[in-house]
Amino acid sequence: MTAGTRIRSVEVLISSPSRNFVTLRITTEDGVTGLGDATLNGRELSVASYLRDHVAPLLIGTDAHRIEDTWQLLYRGAYWRRGPVTMTAIAAVDVALWDIKAKRAGMPLYQLLGGASREGVLVYGHASGRDLAALHDSVRTLTSAGFQAIRIQAAVPGITTVYGVSKVSTGRSSYEPAGRGALAVESGWDTDRYLRFVPEMFASVREEFGAELPLLHDGHHRMTPIQAARLGKDLEPYRPFWLEDCTPAENQEALRLVRQHTTTPLAIGEVMNTVWDFQTLIREQLIDYVRASVAHTGGITGLRRIFDYAALYGVRSGSHGATDISPVGMAAALHLDLAINNFGIQEYMQHDPLVAEVFHSAYTFEGGYLHPGDEPGIGVSYDDDAAARFAYEPAYLPVARRVDGTMHDW
Ligand code: GCO
Ligand code: MG
After folding, report:
1. Ligand 2: centre distance to CA 243 (Å)
2. pLDDT the model gives residue 167
3. Which fold, 112-378?
4. Ligand 1 pocket, 295 CB below 6 A?
5. Is 289 a catalytic residue?
6. Could you tell me if the CB of 217 is within 6 A of ligand 1?
7. What fold is seen in the domain 7-107?
8. Which of 94, 96, 181, 271 could form a disulfide with 26 if both were Cys (CB 3.0 to 4.6 A apart)?
9. SS3 letters across 149-189
10. Residues 235-289: pLDDT tens digits?
11. Domain residue extents for the chain
């Protein structure tokens, strides 16, 4: 073992600058630190306990250089496999170890992953509005800020609260679904109204902004396969960049039906955790983009495995980058995005400015592209003093009920 690379401490840090984040900090005997994102929206403390109570004791004294072996120890060694809590915990350890390795090498992480395959990482921003005029304003704000690809979501007439729509349109991606409080907020849902409205929304944005602007939309797991097939077909004239999470995709075979009916590109995966969750989707080429995040799929090691498998079938990456991915998770994703050949696009929902008080990150946005920066490691540091000002507060994602009260997928 190289002198000084033994793990001396493993700390679980919880802070809530505008929203909750769980961060893992690993320090070696010679004082090199690495950070990993362990945030699982609405279930934060379970990952914190998993790490603190069950993982940290296993890591103390082991060699921080042995990333693959540590990954296998945590995956195989738990006996209980997969699942968001386990894979988020493994991700945090994995990213922290990659951060340490890259710092020791004196290189930004992407150099260790094979070096840059492109100059920057194309991102998409979030536009939303209470009505179509407000949505247009939101798109305009993003295009003037330099965004070159935009996700569009708007309130559906007749439904009170809708996924992806801010109460106020600020242009900045301010939509934060997790609501503080001990209880999840309930929202209403009506798929028929939604299915009628979304093609109108696309038509109006295409009319206003022309044919070329890449437009994305998130269905947030709310449709049945035949409904998703219908929507995919209806959107074809507007050439969406992708339709995201059209059905609850833990039933991977369901995507066969959607695929048979539409050429609208499909993106799936933010709730998935391992390559096994994508096996049928990728092998049968039922999707075009893998939407997984570094933070929920076992880190750089886990997500790279998924992306490499996807590459064999012409499926590209489209990493999750919502506000519940901390700057640590975001930075890790950017290093991987820059390095892999089958990169597609990266989500970039900008954090509340308070987040930058706790996480100081080296990544930069210019002309629609993010770059992870060239600091050694992943390029993020954690400010303990600032973090201490923002105590954890319980916060939960909303739940959705149909008009007759039936629980629906949110
Ligand atoms: C997205 C996502 C998010 C999720 C959130 C859940 O595409 O950005 O759907 O908005 O709802 O990340 O924690
Ligand atoms: Mg989504």
Report:
1. 10
2. 60
3. TIM Barrel (3.20.20)
4. no
5. no
6. no
7. Enolase-like; domain 1 (3.30.390)
8. 96
9. CEEEEECCCCCCCCCCCCCCCCCCCCCCCCEECCCCCEEEE
10. 999 999 999 999 998 999 999 999 999 999 999 999 999 999 999 999 999 999 9
11. 7-107, 112-378
